[in-house]
Design a protein that fits this description.
The chain has 443 residues and is an all-alpha fold. Among the domains are: 43-163, Cytochrome c-like domain (Cytochrome Bc1 Complex, Chain D, domain 2); 285-441, no CATH class. It is built from 21 helices and no strands. The chain has helices spanning 2-36, 43-51, 62-75, 94-97, 100-108, 110-116, 119-127, 140-154, 165-218, 225-232, 237-242, 244-267, 285-291, 296-299, 314-321, 329-339, 360-366, 371-375, 392-401, 413-423, 438-441. Helix 15 (314-321) packs across helix 16 (329-339). It is elongated and about 115 Å long. The N and C termini lie far apart (75 Å). Residues 1-27 form the signal peptide. Pfam families: Cytochrom_C (PF00034), Cytochrome_C7 (PF14522). Residues 63-154 form the Cytochrome c domain. The chain crosses the membrane at residues 190-213. Keywords: Heme, Iron, Membrane, Metal-binding, Signal, Transmembrane, Transmembrane helix.
Length: 443
């Protein structure tokens, strides 16, 4: 009876340890889920055209203003602010200086208006060192929503000063999300600490109880030989270390570890995940794409319409840096490249093998895939590195898990119907449309 009690206490101790270990793992998983939750990058910009479809009469509509905010950050923030001059003029009061139809024409094709001899257009062009504003393929409704957002920002005070309206707006929304995430993470950490403390207290308590029971049992006279043997037994560590099963277990584990590391090393041959070379010019994506929210397509102009996302030319840099930070040592490197008529020798980071076909426009324009899906948090990188593995297995997994947006596209109607009949309503993914066939990427 007494030996049974001793064994029970050891079993309880092991069960409690496993229970609290599992609870800690679940809490850690919850924390990971909380940290991964958030707004999908670019979601606001993607929703902007739909919300901006309202007419000029809806310029006071919060949805239209929100759409204008997203469009401004994606297209205008790199050269304009609401109340301060950046590369171009401050936009506050633009609807009072010029009628809306004029603003629409100017945004859509400013060079045409300058060439036509429009008095105000020529004046602006000359006032800002004949810096040509790019033409934007925005609809009348989208431009109207930008003007509506500018009007909504005119009456706001900016405690940051300077041209920071868009930055202040970003911080207002970003701080809320960051605060929520930090609060949730702090809560999970507190729970983990409490669980660890409780586990330690229980272990200490069980050890004390076990010792007390041993002392009590030693004072009893009715114990048989087997009970006394269990009560007084001690662990012979040397015999355990010399035993065949221990040596076999250690040898097996050693072989498995060596085999695993060897396979991992072989599988990693040719992979460049984490590759972060030094570039000839210290360009910070964190500053440009993160803090200033310059849209990726402003510099990588072909990312939505071509197989490759082109490396921007020095002329694109000069759209801003002909007037901003002109004395910076890094910017002077761009000037020298232009003067010598030589391209900047950027070091390529993401490089797929020649045997694999990849089309950026097919993924970004048709598939609606965000840059961060493959390139990671690019807007937080001072120096860009290869975030994803970019292996064949990595691509295939994405094709298996990513559903296709088939709404409003008659091409898919019959395919989706056949798929649903054969797969009981399972999601229609890229793989369902042949996205894992060899010839899709290798031909």
């Amino acid at each position: 009876m007494s030996s049974y009690r001793l064994r029970s206490f050891s079993h309880w101790l092991l069960a409690l340890f496993l229970t609290f270990t599992a609870a800690g793992q679940l809490a850690a998983q919850d924390e990971a889920k909380v940290s991964q939750a958030g707004v999908t990058p670019g979601a606001a910009a993607a929703a902007a055209p739909a919300a901006a479809a309202g007419s000029a009469a809806g310029a006071g509509d919060p949805a239209v203003i929100q759409a204008g905010d997203a469009l401004f950050k994606a297209n205008c923030a790199q050269c304009h602010a609401v109340k301060d001059v950046v590369v171009g003029p401050a936009l506050a009061g633009i609807d009072k200086r010029r009628p809306l139809p004029w603003i629409v024409k100017w945004v859509q094709n400013s060079s045409k208006m300058v060439a036509s001899g429009d008095e105000y257009a020529v004046k602006i062009f000359n006032q800002y060192q004949k810096q040509q504003m790019p033409s934007f393929a925005l609809s009348d409704a989208e431009i109207t929503s930008i003007v509506a957002w500018v009007k909504s920002e005119e009456g706001k005070t900016n405690p940051l000063g300077g041209g920071g309206e868009q930055v202040a707006g970003k911080e207002t929304g970003g701080q809320t999300a960051a605060t929520d995430e930090a609060g949730a993470g702090k809560y999970v950490n507190v729970v983990l600490i409490v669980l660890i403390v409780v586990l330690i207290v229980l272990v200490v308590t069980l050890v004390i109880i076990a010792n007390i029971m041993k002392d009590v049992l030693r004072g009893r006279k009715d114990l048989d030989g087997r009970d006394v043997e269990i009560l007084e037994q001690k662990t012979d560590w040397m015999s355990i270390l010399k035993s065949g099963w221990f040596k076999g277990t250690v040898g097996t584990l050693f072989v498995l570890v060596v085999l695993y590391e060897s396979i991992q090393g072989i599988m990693a041959v040719g992979l460049s995940q984490g590759y972060q070379p030094a570039q000839p010019i210290a360009f910070s994506h964190k500053l440009h794409a993160g803090e200033h929210q310059i849209n990726c397509a402003y510099c990588h102009t072909s990312v939505y319409k071509s197989k490759s996302a082109n490396i921007p030319s020095a002329n694109i840099c000069m759209n801003c840096h002909s007037q901003i930070k002109t004395t910076s040592p890094e910017i002077k490197k761009i000037y020298r490249a232009i003067q010598r008529q030589q391209p900047i020798q950027w070091v390529r980071i993401h490089n797929l093998p020649d045997l694999a076909y990849f089309n950026h426009s097919q993924h970004t324009q048709v598939g609606g895939i965000e840059c961060q899906t493959c390139h990671g948090p690019i807007e937080k990188m001072d120096v860009v590195y290869q975030y994803s593995a970019l292996t064949m297995g990595w691509c295939i997994n994405c094709h298996r898990e990513t559903p296709l947006n088939t709404k409003g596209n008659g091409y898919y109607d019959n395919l989706v119907k056949l798929h649903n009949e054969a797969n009981a309503g399972a999601p229609f993914t890229v793989s369902s449309n042949g996205g894992t066939e060899c010839s899709k990427c290798h031909y």
